[in-house]
Amino acid sequence: xxxxxxxxxxxxxxxxxxxxxxxxxxxxxxxxxxxxxxxxxxxxxxxxxxxxxxxxxxxxxxxxxxxxxxxxxxxxxxxxxxxxxxxxxxxxxxxxxxxxxxxxxxxxxxxxxxxxxxxxxxxxxxxxxxxxxxxxxxxxxxxxxxxxxxxxxxxxxxxxxxxxxxxxxxxxxxxxxxxxxxxxxxxxxxxxxxxxxxxxxxxxxxxxxxxxxxxxxxxxxxxxxxxxxxxxxxxxxxxxxxxxxxxxxxxxxxxxxxxxxxxxxxxxxxxxxxxxxxxxxxxxxxxxxxxxxxxxxxxxxxxx
Amino acid sequence: xxxxxxxxxxxxxxxxxxxxxxxxxxxxxxxxxxxxxxxxxxxxxxxxxxxxxxxxxxxxxxxxxxxxxxxxxxxxxxxxxxxxxxxxxxxxxxxxxxxxxxxxxxxxxxxxxxxxxxxxxxxxxxxxxxxxxxxxxxxxxxxxxxxxxxxxxxxxxxxxxxxxxxxxxxxxxxxxxxxxxxxxxxxxxxxxxxxxxxxxxxxxxxxxxxxxxxxxxxxxxxxxxxxxxxxxxxxxxxxxxxxxxxxxxxxxxxxxxxxxxxxxxxxxxxxxxxxxxxxxxxxxxxxxxxxxxxxxxxxxxxxxxxxxxxxxxxxxxxxxxxxxxxxxxxxxxxxxxxxxxxxxxxxxxxxxxxxxxxxxxxxxxxxxxxxxxxxxxxxxxxxxxxxxxxxxxxxxxxxxxxxxxxxxxxxxxxxxxxxxxxxxxxxxxxxxxxxxxxxxxxxxxxxxxxxxxxxxxxxxxxxxxxxxxxxxx
Lengths: 304, 473
Fold this sequence. Notes:
The structure holds 2 protein chains of 2 kinds. By secondary structure, chain A is mainly α. Chain A has helices at 7-31, 42-97, 103-124, 180-184, 192-204, 210-263, 267-293; strands spanning 127-128, 131-132, 144-147, 154-157, 165-167, 173-175. In chain B, helix 5 packs parallel to helix 7 (278-314). Chain B is rod-shaped, with a radius of gyration of 39 Å. Chain B has 2 domains: 4-69 and 429-465, no CATH class; 78-416, no CATH class. Chains A and B meet through helix 1, helix 2, strand 2, strand 5 and helix 6 of A and helix 2, helix 3, helix 8, helix 9 and helix 10 of B.
């Protein structure tokens, strides 16, 4: 049986392979990442792209929801104050309507309601980070202004009906604003400003036209309940944003864990493989040294 | 005739034969480390016996030269396997450079900048952030900045691929001169072999020819056809003639569509060479198949993202209240006209963040419906029927799978080459132990023949003396 006289060359080839393997394992160990090139795990690399995409989207939503929560809370608190202002306006009007007040008291009610009107106007022109939150899409200018040229005065709305939504990664649409005209100038006579302007006109002369005043007071009451309803929309949005953000954070945690499992180097396995490779390398080196050192051919054994 | 003289003759012939055989052994030992050397065995030929009066008398032995121990079939198999291993080896080297451009993002804070997958997500996320506050300048700047990062990474990757393509082109072109030199040398050797030993193994000349063939097969895929009078015809793997007996045909190069094409005579054989094997085949496969495929995918990605985002932005109203039109478009990216080259040319043209149209067409500037629409593009099938992230994910998986399969092929082929090399060495390599034992045998044979010679000398002396013991010593 013939043998390959150059077999030591093959051993050296194996030694090179063992060394290359050792280098790769060491670099995996030091970087902590198990997939350093696409060919190591093609399917895993593709999955990694998708997982990271989802994780980043979730992260972005969490940040955005933090931003919008502030805006929604400002809207909610403004509307809360509007409700308490309107409640005091109604009680003032009611006491003026029962006929027990004298003329100067009635005029006093008119000026108090006038103060409430300007307070409510300021609240309706609330802004958050420089943008007017009750102006629909026209957020660069204050939406409400009162003109006193007529009696009763007229408050006009210069915003629009635009509603903005925030979309969560799973497609949920959360309403971010309610247009000012919808809240304060609602249809069917439940307009806050119309009622307030009407009441001021009713009481400013000192004499109360009871029918008109009562009708305006009723209008203000229904406007108040309307505002409270609109406030519910904002409150719902706050709840939705919190819930969506929590849900997204949960999903993000799971995805992050999956992605980490995919990419992270399995330290125990690598350490074992590395130790085996080092053993193999040492053994090969010894064998090669042994074979080369001993005079291993017949020539060296012939006499003379 | 059985005389003492003829015995002398036979013995001196034997001594000659042994000496010649020892020369063969010495030659083997001297060439033990010469690459491509095939060990030689001395040939012994019994001389024709003569018959006199019905009695047959042997005529001794002659050494009739040396035979190289070679197996042509085994050598051809080795060449073929080396061809394939060479091809997959050079293709693998090129592919490893390509895949290094797309190393996976490990997801940690210090992970690779320049990962296109993350850049795609960042771009569409920047629109999502804009939904929360469409008029915010910092968020708008962020859109432009993520767009810049994405287009920078894509165009860099495309530029690297193009550069690699040129480098491969030069490598491949450079090999032509080597191929031509080898085919020329083989043609000359063919001539020499055919004239000097048309019917037998040509020894050293054949060793040289086999060396050249082995080198040639590592460069370019070849088929070997043995012809009459120990000649050899070489064709490329797809049948174009390179060497026929004493004539060799030169490979020439020329530019075809911006890359080097390879010609034999007037025929363009580039595509046949690419699938033929050898390192030239590997380089050409990488240059004409793998790299264009990767570039094509990047072009598709860049084209789709650029045009879709541009179109959507142009359909909205920006912060200055301007709505996009066909005449004065609000484009974020450079609008590509065709797919090819769009990756290399991808860049951001918008400089004013106010021009990002977050609001719907005709809506107030606080509206965010167009920002929502632009964010949604990231999850719509805008790139060849897939979302941008899905498309990139598939691209990465396909590339990785290709590299992995070429790696497996290459490892298997190298193992096969090693095995065949071992077999070939076992047959044709100089085994010093065998040479030592043969040498010892021949020495003993020489000693024995000399002993016989001495004895015959004594016998003749006795015959000459014939009774008188001291006449001749």
